[in-house]
Write a structure and sequence with these properties.
The complex is a heterodimer.
Chain A lengths: L4 E3 L2 E4 L5 E6 L6 E8 L3 E9 L2 E5 L6 E5 L5 E5 L8 E8 L10 E2 L3 E5 L1
Parallel strand pairs in A: 2-11
Antiparallel strand pairs in A: 1-3, 3-8, 4-5, 4-9, 5-6, 7-8, 9-10, 9-11
Chain B lengths: L2 E3 L4 E5 L4 E3 L2 E3 L5 E7 L5 E7 L5 E3 L5 E5 L4 E6 L8 E8 L7 E3 L3 E6 L1
Parallel strand pairs in B: 2-12
Antiparallel strand pairs in B: 1-4, 3-9, 5-6, 5-10, 7-8, 8-9, 10-11, 10-12
The chains are: A mainly beta, B mainly beta.
Chain lengths: 115, 114
């Protein structure tokens, strides 16, 4: 099976712009989670989508949003970018159904730089 | 709220030496526990996981970890380290029920001396 794919891999934006990141989960996986990784704050949970519904949400401002499509692909959007949004954004997918494990498989990440 | 502590920010070991990375968690019940490894510029790779049952779990690349409920610990071990093991290691805890939300520790950077 193909792994989790994220596009784009690298992105440079300026303050005030908005950005959309995309994640394609492993085939058959219904849960997609997003994490932000920075040197100062480490790995922090953003949100999780399952069957097109947000199931969990971390402590991030409303500028961070996401959605999931019927094919389980997910996008996250950050509006009004700030310098502090520069980070590696990781997507993870999980089978997360009845009788399955909750282990998550991570993609390579999207490196966002805000200038 | 759940939390994870990895007390060692950096660890240096010689190739062939044994390794133990420490992880302590805080959670009200028995959690799901994970160890991930991250190489520079890469995503996270799952090394091993504990859900239930045998408290000594085996993972990939010769790693193992032991869940000790009394100490709220889930330490990662490897009997003989290889130079390719140099990377950053993250311990994570997940809640039972209610979806997938992992809380990560701050990570331990492993350096291997040849």
């Amino acid at each position: 099976k193909a792994g989790v794919t994220q596009t784009p891999r690298y992105l440079i934006k300026t303050r005030g712009q908005q950005v959309t990141l995309s994640c394609s989960p492993i085939s058959g996986h219904r849960s997609v989670s997003w994490y932000q990784q920075t040197p100062g704050q480490g790995l922090q949970f953003l949100f999780e989508y399952f069957s097109e519904t947000q199931r969990n949400k971390g402590n991030f401002p409303g500028r961070f949003s996401g959605r999931q499509f019927s094919n389980s692909r997910s996008e996250m959007n950050v509006s009004t970018l700030e310098l502090g949004d520069s980070a590696l954004y990781l997507c993870a997918s999980s089978p997360s159904g009845q009788g399955t494990s909750n282990e998550q498989f991570f993609g390579p990440g999207t490196r966002l730089t805000v200038l | 709220a759940q939390s994870v502590t990895q007390p060692d920010i950096h660890i240096t070991v010689s190739e062939g030496a044994s390794l133990e990375l420490r992880c302590n968690y805080s959670y009200g019940a028995t959690p799901y526990l994970f160890w991930y490894v991250q190489s520079p510029g890469q995503g996270l790779q799952l090394l091993l996981k504990y859900f239930s049952g045998d408290t000594l779990v085996q993972g990939i690349k010769g790693f193992e970890a032991e869940f000790k409920r009394s100490q709220s610990s889930f330490n990662l071990r490897k009997p003989s380290v290889h130079w390719s093991d140099a990377a950053e290691y993250f311990c994570a805890v997940g809640a039972r029920g209610g979806g997938n939300k992992l809380t990560f520790g701050t990570g331990t950077q492993l350096k291997v001396e040849l």
